[in-house]
Design brief:
Blueprint lengths: L2 H6 L3 H8 L5 H13 L9 H14 L5 H10 L6 H4 L3 H14 L7 H22 L15 H12 L1 E2 L4 E2 L1 H13 L5 H8 L9 H7 L3
């Protein structure tokens, strides 16, 4: 895959296949959680699955243990969520495929294909939000990580919009402004933080500031 193909790709599975060994369990798990939250309303009568997603998110950040994850996995009522409680890149490839189909529930005829394609596009956008551009390495300058910048990054990461799980774009815009005030001269980070997103936990720019992998 070339850089141009990566930026234009509409197939999240192909993108995850390309990343393969470069994708951490944490990133893969958060991607799986993010796409499951896209169909949160379909789980309105399945609290076990919603709980499983929340546990998997906490586990990704070291705030839940193996026993918590195993317990959530045993109680899951919606089978597709197993892909995020049992961490592998292969698992989230499968989850992405299944979520695209679940999103088209209640839709018939040609509308089914359009709905699944729209979901695929959204998943591809989330892959780019989490993993950035693998063809252009971006690092955060040591002078940019001021106490204000780090504090704003933590707030953006923690104070999400629920139930979507999206990061608040207004917080990200303020974070970008603070980075500029700290003499950040990396356009990729500033442009990404100011882009409409959606952005989720694992967003590569926020992760870079917080030194998360």
């Amino acid at each position: 895959m070339t850089e141009a193909e990566w930026m234009a790709c509409t197939h999240p599975v192909a993108m995850l296949n390309y990343l393969a060994l470069e994708s951490s369990d944490r990133k893969c798990r958060l991607f799986g959680c993010a796409i499951c939250r896209r169909v949160w309303s379909l789980m309105s009568e399945d609290e076990a699955s919603r709980h499983g997603i929340e546990v998997a998110e906490r586990y990704a950040d070291g705030k839940a243990g193996d026993a918590d994850l195993a317990g959530a996995n045993r109680s899951l009522g919606w089978s597709v969520v197993h892909g995020i409680t049992l961490p592998t890149a292969t698992g989230v490839w499968w989850v992405s495929h299944e979520i695209c189909q679940w999103a088209s529930q209640g839709v018939t005829g040609s509308e089914t294909d359009r709905t699944e394609h729209a979901e695929q596009l959204a998943h591809a956008g989330l892959v780019r939000d989490l993993f950035g551009n693998p063809f252009r390495a971006v690092t955060v300058g040591t002078g940019w990580s001021t106490s204000t910048v780090v504090s704003l990054a933590h707030a953006a990461y923690n104070e999400r919009l629920l139930p979507s799980g999206h990061l608040d774009p207004s917080r990200l815009a303020v974070l970008a402004d603070a980075l500029e005030e700290a003499n950040c001269c990396e356009p990729a980070i500033l442009e990404h933080l100011r882009s409409p997103g959606p952005h989720v936990r694992g967003c590569w720019a926020v992760d870079a500031i917080l030194a998360k992998e």
